[in-house]
Amino acid sequence: MGVEAGMDEVVAGRVTRDEIASAGAGDAEEFDAFVAGSGSRLLHTAYLLTGDRNAAEDLVQDVLVRAWSRWSRVSAADEPRAYVRRMLVNASVSRWRGLRSRRAERLVAEPPDRPGTDEDPRDDEVWALVATLPPRQRAVVVLSYYEDLSDGQVAEALGCSTGTVKSQRAKALRSLRARIDQEGQP
User: Fold this and answer.
1) Would you say 108 and 136 are in contact if contact means Cβ atoms under 8 Å apart?
2) Percentage of residues in the chain with pLDDT exceeding 90?
3) Cα–Cα distance for residue pair 147/89, rounded to 1 Å
4) Residue 44: which residues within 8 A CB-CB, separation 6 or more?
5) How far apart are CA 164 and CA 145, in angstroms?
6) Which among 3, 83, 130, 174 is least buried, having the fewest CB atoms inside 10 angstroms?
7) CA-CA distances (angstroms) from residue 167 to 140, 141, 151, 174?
């Protein structure tokens, strides 16, 4: 099953269709459309943040449940997807802080399934290296290069200054370059 598949199942794990429908048909349809249009992208972003498919699915599920519970506020935002993406990043960082003291991060052997064939085959190797970065640096790289956000947007999503974004990205890129030099060209 690919990363994009199963968003209904991810959401249905905590919020059933009946619960969504009972909350209001208009809101339910709008939320359903949001999940259908943004769910797979959120799941892929979560995978890049966590490095683990199961953790990514859990993260997206939890964030979508919270988004649904405050859907009137989320849908009123200028960019609901950016609002939910920030919720995703914040939840990821919170989980990492909680897990940091209990266990080391676990890297995965296989990257997620990706549609299309126009990607460079070395991308998987690069993203595997990105997965080894500390969570804050990884979040900056994912939001900057995968989500294609500006420094200001990344800073807003992470709740930090643009200077912090730039320094974290510089550290991440320096680390990635060193690893690529050590391991050879990906």
Assistant:
1) no
2) 17
3) 12
4) 3, 4, 112, 146
5) 16
6) 174
7) 10, 11, 11, 10
Task: Compute the distance between CA of residue 84 and CA of residue 100 in angstroms, rounded to an integer.
Answer: 24
Show the domains of the chain with their CATH numbers.
Answer: 1-114 (1.10.1740), 116-186 (1.10.10.10)
List pLDDT tens digits, range 102-153.
444 555 666 656 544 455 556 677 778 888 899 889 999 988 888 888 899 8
Compute the C-alpha angle 56/151/132, nearest 5°.
40
DSSP run (H or E) holding 92: helix 80-100
Residue found under tokens 């519970």: 69
Q: In terms of Cα–Cα distance, which of 85, 38, 82, 77 is closest to 59?
A: 85
Q: Are 38 and 84 spatial neighbours (Cβ–Cβ below 8 Å)?
A: yes
- Whether residue 144 contacts residue 167, with contact meaning beta carbons closer than 8 Å, is answered with no
